[in-house]
Specification:
The protein is mainly alpha-helical. The chain contains six helices and three strands, in the order ααβααββαα.
Length: 147
């Protein structure tokens, strides 16, 4: 009889294997994973409510020192602009530049090609089910304050 511990161990094994595969295959090649993550968040953000470094820390779960390093490098590469808020001078708002949008679009097209093959392999129904399960796992981890 399988136990909850067996299920947990199998989940851990699958998680580690997936993480390792994604990391070792270097899905993102022209920028770091964290840069791509930040670009993704900034590209989906409503222009009326730009994000701050604090917002990005909350969404990515990176430490403030890590986020500052990522943002400094992105600014050096010309991917982002930091603009002081007109409403609240204490806030620095982050904006994706055209160069950042182009770099992210290039990365995204590579990722999209991989996802296309993955969906083709698994089938749309399984792929959607997998996405639902991953979202459920994320929500569950948030409840127990892991993420």
């Amino acid at each position: 009889m399988k136990t909850k511990n067996d299920a947990g161990e199998r989940l851990l094994s699958a998680w580690l294997t997936l993480s390792s595969t994604l990391w070792n295959e270097r899905i993102v090649t022209g920028m770091t994973f964290n840069e791509a993550f930040v670009c993704n968040l900034l590209s989906r953000q409503d222009a009326a409510q730009p994000l701050t470094a604090t917002d990005l820390c909350q969404r990515t779960k990176l430490l403030k020192s890590q986020m500052n390093k990522v943002l400094s490098e992105m600014e050096r590469k010309g991917y982002i602009q930091r603009i002081r808020s007109e409403k609240d001078k204490r806030q620095v708002l982050l904006h994706l530049t055209e160069a950042g949008q182009a770099a992210y679009a290039k990365e995204h097209s590579g990722i999209s090609a991989i996802l296309h093959h993955l969906v083709e392999d698994l089938g749309e129904e399984k792929a959607l089910h997998a996405a639902d399960i991953v979202e459920e796992i994320t929500q569950s981890l948030k409840k127990i304050e892991i993420l």
